[in-house]
Amino acid sequence: MDFSSKLLENAVHEISQLPGIGKRTALRLVLHLLKQPEEQTTNLASALVNLRSQIKFCVSCHNISDVELCEICASPKRDESIVCVVEDIRDVMAIENTGQFRGLYHVLGGKISPMEGIGPQDLTISSLISKAKKGIIKEMIFALSSTMEGDTTNFYIYKQIEGLEINTSTIARGVAVGDELEYADEVTLGRSIINRIPFEGSLKAN
Ligand SMILES: [Zn+2]
To answer: Which residue(s) pair with 84 in the sheet?
Structure first.
C-alpha cells in the first residue's frame, strides 16, 4: 500500500496491529476519523492512553478494576467460599449478566497452551492456589471454555488443590463444547452454573 502521507501511513500501521483488522479496514477507520470533528480522535486517543496508564488489576481476583480490590471482591453480599475460575474479564461479565452467581471469581488471564508457549507460570494460578490454601474456599467452579487448553488448565489446577477440602465442579455443558463462554446466551449460561457438575464426574465422562 502506497501512502501519500507518512502521518496517514503511521496511523494505518498502528490500527492494523489490532486483531482482525487488516490494512484496508485500518485505512477506512483512519479516513473516517479524519472526517469527524478533531475532538473525537483526541477523546479516542486519550481514552486509550488513560486505559493503559491507569488500569489496575484486582489484587485478589485479578479482574480489571479501577481500584485495588474490585467491587465484586469487596462486596459483603458475595459468598467468598465459592470461587468461579475463568479465563478473562469477558467471562466475568458474561456470568455476572446471568445474575445467577453470588460467589467470587478468579481470573486466570488465559489458558495453559503448550502450542502457544503459555505455561502455568504465565497465568495467575499460583495466586489461586495460595488463596485455596487459606481454607476459606469450599467450592471451586471451573468455567473455562471446553477446549483442550481449557481442560488441561482445569486438570492442572485440580491436581494442585487435591487434598485440600475443596469441592470442584465444572459448569454444565448447555455451553457447547469448544464454545467461548461469552457467546453463550444468558439463560443457558445461568442454567449451566446452577446445574454445575462435580469435576471428577466430568473427567470420567471423557
Ligand atoms: Zn476482585
So the answer is: 105, 141
Task: Give 121 Cα–ligand 1 centroid separation in angstroms.
Answer: 20
pLDDT (tens digit, 0 to 9) for every residue of the chain, 206 residues total? 788 999 999 999 999 999 999 999 999 999 999 999 999 999 999 999 999 998 899 999 999 998 999 999 999 999 999 999 999 999 999 899 988 899 999 999 999 999 989 999 999 999 999 999 999 999 999 998 878 899 999 999 999 999 898 999 988 765 554 556 666 677 777 778 887 888 876 765 54
Distance 204 CA to ligand 1 centre (A): 32
Query: Looking at the whole model, is its pTM more than 0.90?
Result: no
CA–CA distances in Å: residue 15 to residues 12, 39, 42, 190: 5, 18, 15, 36
Cβ-in-10-Å burial (0-12, 13-18, 19+) of 169 comes to buried
190 Cα–ligand 1 center, Å: 21
> How many Cβ atoms sit within 10 Å of the Cβ of residue 116?
11
- What residues pack around ion ligand 1 (CB closer than 5 A)? 58, 60-61, 63, 70, 73
Å from CA of 70 to ligand 1 middle: 4
